[in-house]
Amino acid sequence: MANVEKNALPMKNIDDALQIRNHLLIQLEKATRIHDVSQRQKLLNIVIAGGGPTGVEVSGMLAEMSKKIVYKDYPEFKEHQLDIYLIDAADKLLGSMSQKSQKEALTTLGKLGVNIKLGISVKDYDNGIVSLSDGTTIETATLIWASGVMGRKAPGLPAESIGRGRRVMVDGFNKVIGVEGIYALGDLCYQTADTNYPNGHPQLAQVAIQQGLLLASNILKTQVGKPMKSFSYKDKGSMAIIAKFKAVVDLPKGFFKGFLAWLTWLFIHIIPLVGFGNKAKVLYNWFWSFFTNDPTLRLIIRPEEDDK
Length: 308
Hints:
Helix content: 25-40%
CATH class of the domain at 2-149: Alpha Beta
Oligomer: single chain
């Protein structure tokens, strides 16, 4: 979808996150200077495409922001509604997680006022209008794309080496099918040899980490004439934060939610940080933001031209 690729805001890396923050702040600033109700509402509508962990987390945080921060900073909006739409082509949120997690996400986001549209996909986004598969449209200046993405092109590989979503087809040892001496790991590869995941592995960091460790071991084995071991993903669980103090955690042998799950989510994301000082600083900043409902930093650090 060329218009979506051109006009939507992706959410895949730190630069994307900064761009989204800048864009949202700019739209809020613009809305304060507009008196036409319909035009102001267009700036205050936020559409998020994708009901996976990223889409759920972004929509939940924006819903919290609209209730706790926006109206405090922009009293002009008290008579207007900051509407957040979460759209997914599937019939459920958090499709890769348990039914309990899916139900919790749907209930919590509904209570926060998020407009959830399931079984509907985005078909186009042009001239500030999001067109949906059911024929309806939403006027908005903000479409955040948190749905699936295409893999990067790998020039030189034969067509039979490329699978669904432009991901590279690999065998059970992560060797690219159709060529010699080339391996692919993580999100870029599409592996169906694992009997527990015949439709490919979830695009999670743990998959890439485990594949990388096994491939390193297999390469060492080939150097001494030992047979390689095929990859089998060991699921260590998955989690998603929905809103403040609300999260879900799926483990191989259980499920839990709420405040404990929220704390688990925070600490799991702090553990990989390098250095005690970094861990302490991030933890302090997070807890200050969550408990005071005031992240303090609302700077637009890039020129408006970048936002366009």
